[in-house]
């Protein structure tokens, strides 16, 4: 009998007849094999051709020609390309996912940048109303009860399988990402980080770390003696923390802020902490906890957005804090004077609750993609039982234990240095949560467009309007159709997008000004276009079709970035430990400096997820399309003179308005 692992699934899943699927040895109720296929290794010639096509839009002709020659040399029958490809094919046969460790190390474990801003996303959830400190404790307890219920579901093996919504609808998706976060922790290394992965299965004791005013406490959700802790008792324990933390005789050391530093420096400092047995035990408790629960103080309105005239108002306003302020809190905590030491950024899941009703999460990205984390948190949020009894002030016996630290003068100095570095990084972080209210995905669907493809092209147009050219753009594409699949990269800066963006901007120079930069003069410019609306629509359709084609290739395991990474690493095996010149050449390096790093993070609630740029000269931009509006979270750095999140948001607004004008006559009522 033929099984998925035997075939290699080299061909597109769309080319596999349903009849073949239904006659496989073991299939599910939808006719799909019960065993997930392994991620393929696309043909070498296909990967090389798609690589050249992917870089054409932003590579100068001379450098492009050089890249073509390097590809020709690499892929020649007597080159090392075929050997590398065969090496990966054999690796695929031997491993569950040939690409996983290559990708994990390249994307996360080898990166030395600090986790907050550069790696860990933050996500504010819809704010809640707290009247007293008892409300805070009760809400926190309800969330922890939800976490424990989810852990029990995982341990039971009854977690429902996610299924694809299109392109072989109902195909099962890999669920491994759901099982990694709880109880796990990233561990810093001097050269390469590692992961502490919690063991699968039920444990007699389960605890979380609750941190308030930089003091950490161990709070049990389950013990071998008492069993599962009730919601009322949990609320009482958290109330004890809220009462105890402000009354400490001495301020606790800001140990948590060490986790916000550059990874090699944090690894060195962690090793110093481990020299003391007390610190060893404290680190073990933190790293093996199910999650962190961080109880914060509100950030001041100095973290609010720098907006522009005509921009939509903030979606949430808690006191005088806006959406951007809330996202700052979730991403980095606001600095040493606020909540950045009230964190442990290595923990996969940190639930953050502010005393003013703002709440959300921060998560360490190497264990899981955003959709798995968002699905769990939104499910817990939806299931909160508003009819639970209010907590009383009686604490369990014994009360939550403070996490102790032994801090030497040397370590105290390291903490002081860390506060300086972290505060400087936060001061450089340019962030803007922009809500576009002109239309949402309903209008886009009426235009017969994929909302994701449409919005990716809007990002390309917005960048082109500002700078007059396109740049390497990253959009994560899930590969969960395959065993242990994570993501590949949808590259949106292609020739079709470039031709359309040029046409849309015909007669306009680069740079969308702000009001303070002479907009009135700009409005007096004579603008013209050699393209009529029909031609612009035609170019848009071509670009949209190409964007959709690239997306489908990626989710079906036929992208280019994962195969190129594998070929790069494999080339070391045949080139004396050095990568082939194709991968060290300037063109390849530029193609992998993503000046736009993007992702769609869809939510059922009015939550939104954001992160920083992945390069000092770039933008990070997530987007969340709702039926009638779209939320963008745009990140950059003030130290770069060429980037500005407010200007980019304004360019987005103009681009989206242009498309509404272009497509309004074509939009048809949804059937």
Automatic annotation (TrEMBL):
Gene3D superfamilies: Chloramphenicol acetyltransferase-like domain, Choline/Carnitine o-acyltransferase, domain 2. Pfam families: Carn_acyltransf. Keywords: Acyltransferase, Neurotransmitter biosynthesis, Transferase. One of its GO terms (molecular function) is choline O-acetyltransferase activity. The active site is at residue 365. Signal peptide: none annotated. Residues 40-654 form the Choline/carnitine acyltransferase domain. The keyword Transferase applies. InterPro entries: Carn_acyl_trans, CAT-like_dom_sf, Cho/carn_acyl_trans, Cho/carn_acyl_trans_2. Its EC number is 2.3.1.6. It is an enzyme of class 2 (transferase). Belongs to the carnitine/choline acetyltransferase family. This is Choline O-acetyltransferase. It comes from Ceratitis capitata (Mediterranean fruit fly).
């Amino acid at each position: 009998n033929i099984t998925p692992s035997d075939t290699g699934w080299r061909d597109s899943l769309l080319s596999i007849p349903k009849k073949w699927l239904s006659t496989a040895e073991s299939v599910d109720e939808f006719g799909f094999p019960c065993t997930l296929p392994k991620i393929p290794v696309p043909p070498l010639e296909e990967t090389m051709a798609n690589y050249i096509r992917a870089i054409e839009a932003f590579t100068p002709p001379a450098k492009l020609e050089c890249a073509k020659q390097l590809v020709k040399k690499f892929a020649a029958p007597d080159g090392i390309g075929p050997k590398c490809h065969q090496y990966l094919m054999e690796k695929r046969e031997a491993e569950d996912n040939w690409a996983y460790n290559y990708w994990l190390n390249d994307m996360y474990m080898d990166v030395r940048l600090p986790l907050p801003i550069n790696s860990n996303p933050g996500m504010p959830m819809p704010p809640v109303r707290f009247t007293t400190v008892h409300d805070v404790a009760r809400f926190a307890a309800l969330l922890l009860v939800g976490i424990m219920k989810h852990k029990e579901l995982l341990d039971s093996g009854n977690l429902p399988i996610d299924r694809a919504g299109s392109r072989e609808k109902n195909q099962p998706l890999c669920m491994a990402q759901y099982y990694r976060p709880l109880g796990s922790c990233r561990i810093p290394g001097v050269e390469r980080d590692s992961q502490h992965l919690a063991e699968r299965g039920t444990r007699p004791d389960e605890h979380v770390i609750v941190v308030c005013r930089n003091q950490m406490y161990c709070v049990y959700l389950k013990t071998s003696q008492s069993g599962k802790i009730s919601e009322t008792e949990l609320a009482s324990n958290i109330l004890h923390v809220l009462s105890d933390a402000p009354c400490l005789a001495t301020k606790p050391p800001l140990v948590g802020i060490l986790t916000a530093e550059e990874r090699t420096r944090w690894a060195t400092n962690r090793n110093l902490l481990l020299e003391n047995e007390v610190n060893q035990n404290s680190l073990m408790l933190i790293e093996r906890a199910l999650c962190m629960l961080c109880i914060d103080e509100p950030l001041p309105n100095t973290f609010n957005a720098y907006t522009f005239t005509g921009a939509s108002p903030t979606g949430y306003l808690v006191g005088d804090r806006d959406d951007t302020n809330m996202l700052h809190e979730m991403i980095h905590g606001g600095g040493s004077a606020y909540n950045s030491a009230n964190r442990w950024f290595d923990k996969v899941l940190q639930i953050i609750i502010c005393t003013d009703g703002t709440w959300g999460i921060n998560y360490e990205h190497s264990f899981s993609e955003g959709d798995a984390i968002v699905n769990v948190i939104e499910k817990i949020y939806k299931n909160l039982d508003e009819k639970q009894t209010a907590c009383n002030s009686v604490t369990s016996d014994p009360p939550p234990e403070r996490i102790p630290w032994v801090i030497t003068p040397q370590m105290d100095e390291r903490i002081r240095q860390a506060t300086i570095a972290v505060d400087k990084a936060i001061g450089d972080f340019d962030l803007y949560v922009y809500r576009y209210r002109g239309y949402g995905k309903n209008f886009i669907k009426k235009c017969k467009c994929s909302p994701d493809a449409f919005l990716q092209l809007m990002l390309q147009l917005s960048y082109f309007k500002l700078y007059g050219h396109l740049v390497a753009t990253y959009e994560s594409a899930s590969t969960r159709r395959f065993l242990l699949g994570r993501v590949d990269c949808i590259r949106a800066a292609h020739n079709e997008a470039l031709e359309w963006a040029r046409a849309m901007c015909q007669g306009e120079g680069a740079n969308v000004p702000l009001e303070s930069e002479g907009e009135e003069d700009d409005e007096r410019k004579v603008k013209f276009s050699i393209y009529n609306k029909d031609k612009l629509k035609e170019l848009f359709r071509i670009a949209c079709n190409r964007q959709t084609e690239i997306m489908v290739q990626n989710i079906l395991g036929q992208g280019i970035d994962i195969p190129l990474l594998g070929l790069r690493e494999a080339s070391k095996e045949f080139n004396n430990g050095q990568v082939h010149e194709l991968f060290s050449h300037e063109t390849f390096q530029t193609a992998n400096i993503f000046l736009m790093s993007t992702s769609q993070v869809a939510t059922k609630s009015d939550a939104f997820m954001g992160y920083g740029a992945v390069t000092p000269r770039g933008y990070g931009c997530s987007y969340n399309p709702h039926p009638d509006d779209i939320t963008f979270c745009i990140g950059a750095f003030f130290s770069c003179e060429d980037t500005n999140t407010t200007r980019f948001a304004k360019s987005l607004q103009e681009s989206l308005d242009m498309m509404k004008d272009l497509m309004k006559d074509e939009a048809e009522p949804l059937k």
